[in-house]
Design brief:
By secondary structure, the protein is of the alpha+beta class. It has 2 domains: 90 residues, no CATH class; 88 residues, Alpha-Beta Plaits (2-Layer Sandwich), CATH 3.30.70. Helix content is 57%, strand content 18%. It is built from 6 helices and 4 strands; from the N terminus they run αααβαββαβα. Strand 2 and strand 3 form a beta hairpin. Helix 1 packs parallel to helix 3 and helix 4 runs antiparallel to helix 5. It is elongated and about 80 Å long.
Length: 188
């Protein structure tokens, strides 16, 4: 009798919670993979996402009167969203497009970015306060912290706009040193 109590009110809710965290985390990654056009990875992740979901739902439907399972299920969903975003941020897949608008001393930053191996395009434009230099570059997402540090260190007043890129053709991307991935700083 005590084993049944422990299983139904402690162990099974924990398993439902963990299963829900896993399937929602995988769901978050699947959506990222779909948006990036990763045709082989998205269905594979989706398969495991739904398999785990079916196991969790099977337990819920077998015990519709147990409110603790509902709490475990909902808590797992919320936690899975949070963990999915953390995992997605850590793996940093994909490309980003950066648009910089620079008013003061743009050539220093432009030359530095070129020296670091970035392919970029520049143009002169007129803003509300006079002429500016617009710089376009596409980077690997995992290099964003290093790239932003370079920009902010050398031109802290630069306006920076960042967008996700689905695909590109051609171009040069600086190599990422493995050690740099471990030294990541939070982006402000």
């Amino acid at each position: 009798m005590i084993e049944n109590f422990i299983f139904s009110l402690i162990l099974l809710p924990v398993l439902i919670f963990v299963a829900r965290v896993a399937d929602v985390t995988l769901g978050t990654l699947r959506i990222v993979f779909i948006s990036q056009g990763r045709r082989k990875l998205a269905p594979l992740v989706g398969f495991f996402e739904i398999l785990i979901w079916l196991v969790a739902m099977g337990q819920i439907f077998s015990n519709l009167t147990n409110f603790v399972y509902y709490i475990a299920y909902a808590g797992g969903f919320a936690t899975g969203n949070y963990i999915g975003l953390i995992v997605e941020n850590k793996i940093s897949l994909g490309l980003l497009s950066l648009q910089l608008i620079i008013r003061e001393n743009p050539e220093t930053l432009i030359n530095l970015l070129k020296d670091q191996g970035y392919s970029l395009t520049t143009m002169t434009a007129e803003g509300t306060k006079g002429f500016v230099k617009i710089v376009y570059l596409v980077i690997k997402r995992k290099t964003l912290p290093k790239t932003l540090e370079t920009i902010r260190t050398n031109n802290p007043k630069a306006f920076i706009s960042i967008e996700e890129v689905k695909s590109v053709s051609g171009g040069n991307f600086p190599q990422v040193k493995r050690w740099d991935l471990f030294k990541r700083k939070k982006i402000k």
